[in-house]
Specification:
Elements: E1 2-7, H1 13-26, E2 32-37, H2 48-60, E3 66-77, H3 80-93, E4 98-103, E5 119-122, H4 130-148
Parallel strand pairs: 1-2, 1-4, 3-4, 3-5
Helix pairs in contact: 1-4, 3-4
């Protein structure tokens, strides 16, 4: 099963609606679970490293028995076809219960997460909010499934 783990709730209506729509479309091909973790407090009152480490502590319980893909602007950039091939290869060979896509909170990721990362991917060199990153990732997961099923995906 694929899980998208994100720090921070989805709050914006059009993102929530888009997320629901993509989960519905993807559901034709596979089950994707969206796990929204709470924020770690007031950004202005907690040192950045401590904040990121608190985020990591919440994520940590989802890491065992999983192939962990951390989304980060410094990760590998792939085309949709390359991403589809990678995803298909991971699903067929990793032998783990879950494929996790991990989206950081407002300050990004704790360095600790990279110790558990099997792959680091970039959706773009640009930085996105966790909400936009979730929606973009879901669109790509839908596109991947279309590609892997030899269906049209440009529209």
């Amino acid at each position: 099963m694929t899980r998208i783990i994100l720090v921070g709730p989805l709050k914006t209506n059009y993102i929530i609606n888009g997320t629901k729509q993509y989960l519905k479309w993807i559901g034709k091909y596979e089950k994707v679970q969206l796990i929204q973790l709470p924020l770690s407090g007031d950004l202005n009152k907690i040192p950045e490293k401590d904040y990121k480490d608190k985020d990591f502590e919440k994520i940590q319980k989802y890491l065992p028995d999983s192939y962990n893909i951390v989304l980060d602007e410094n990760g590998d950039s792939l085309t949709s076809v390359e991403f589809a091939n990678l995803y298909d290869n991971i699903k067929s060979t990793c032998g783990r219960k879950y494929i996790n896509f991990i989206i950081g909170g407002p300050l990004g990721h704790s360095q600790k997460i990279f110790e558990y990362s099997n792959k680091t991917l970039s959706l773009s060199k640009l930085t996105f909010t966790h909400e936009f990153a979730t929606l973009i990732l879901l669109e790509q997961l839908f596109r991947i499934n279309k590609i892997l099923n030899n269906e049209r995906y440009h529209y």
